[in-house]
Amino acid sequence: VIDIGKLYAQTGMFTYDPGFTSTASTESKITYIDGDQGVLLYRGYPIDELAEHGDFLETCYLLLYGDLPNASQKAEFDYRVTRHTMVHEQMSRFFNGFRRDAHPMSIMVACVGALAAFYHDSIDINDPLQRQIASIRMIAKMPTIAAMAYKYSIGQPFVYPKNDLDYCSNFLRMCFSVPAEEYKVNPVLARALDRIFILHADHEQNASTSTVRLAGSSGANPFGCIAAGIACLWGPAHGGANEAALKMLGEIGRVENIPKFVARAKDKNDPFRLMGFGHRVYKNYDPRAKIMQKTAHEVLTELGIKDDPLLEVAVELERIALHDSYFIEKKLYPNIDFYSGITLKAMGFPVAMFTVLFAVARTVGWIAQWKEMIDDPDQKIGRPRQLYTGSPFRDYTSIGDR
Ligand code: ACO
């Protein structure tokens, strides 16, 4: 019989940390989170200042290169992203192979991975210039692919990028413009989407980012690594949580029903949880949630959606929970997902697109982390260990003797 304790003693120090709750897998200079204080910094800048004063492409530049761009750097970066928004025409035919009712995230996984086949000139990860080009290509093409996935799902023709528009205006137009009518981008909605993208751009070593790093640690091409990140993000415990929060607000339905649901959330024998509350890292108010709440109000006001029952329920639920001893003691505050579903729904996005939008925004974070890893001379292939709990040694028995 194998002595597992002895085996691990022979291999040196060994830690068992399911879910990596206390093991740092890497050093990073990109994003800082202080969950107790409710602080989120990108390259040292507080998220609320970036969301208030900056724009998404500026944030992309910051995450990728470490500093905010000056005016000419910004203009050049915007220009480069804009020049790469088109996808190969052959790719538009690729879409026809999917069922119309396919989940858009499945299309995203496939099409982003397939970029490696269309742009195989930029899969040489050892060439810094090719790494740059691949990064710009992905940031530029993600909205185009996402909008194509949406248009395909509703049976409408694809809308090509219009490059005199800013990043989010262009995306809204590609999603919502139809040939029969002239589409005018609403600047309030474009600004709100831009802010939502800033809030989702990076969040240090979350599950999808760790997936991208792990995939990239083998030297895999960047498009394949980002496709792996998209697949991970799709899970309901990660990118799918805003959908769950929206569904729950719909189930609560009216302010009068809130106490019943709060009581259920507190009942140890009931598996029900208040969706959009609590976070593995934030044990204080998620700083992104505050900005998201403000954005939700702005979007609903702009669209003339007065007295939206979902928003009314959300605001009151938040008020009640923040004064309830159960939530106070357990440090359960609204997270970013609490208000984002309401906002995206009001903007006209179907629920299936929520996680796709998250993927579009998070792409820059994935790429920045991937680049940081490739640039690190000490980086090793990711290879977690395991604590073996299976059968001890045994001899093979022929099938007739089993
Ligand atoms: N409603 C009611 N009780 C809750 C909630 C909630 N939303 N979240 C946690 N609790 C309680 C748990 O029952 C547990 O109670 P106990 O100590 O009596 O057993 C305690 O708070 C700690 O909960 P854990 O699950 O251990 O906390 P963890 O940090 O692992 O989980 C998580 C964080 C998964 C986000 C959790 O708060 C949750 O399930 N929230 C609802 C889902 C959600 O909103 N997810 C989005 C996360 S944000 C993002 O992914 C971008």
Automatic annotation (TrEMBL):
Pfam families: Citrate_synt
GO cellular component, one term: cytoplasm
Active site: H279, D337
GO terms (BP aspect): tricarboxylic acid cycle
NCBIfam families named among the record's database cross-references: cit_synth_I (TIGR01798), PRK05614.1 (NF004126)
Family: Belongs to the citrate synthase family.
Name this protein carries in UniProt: Citrate synthase
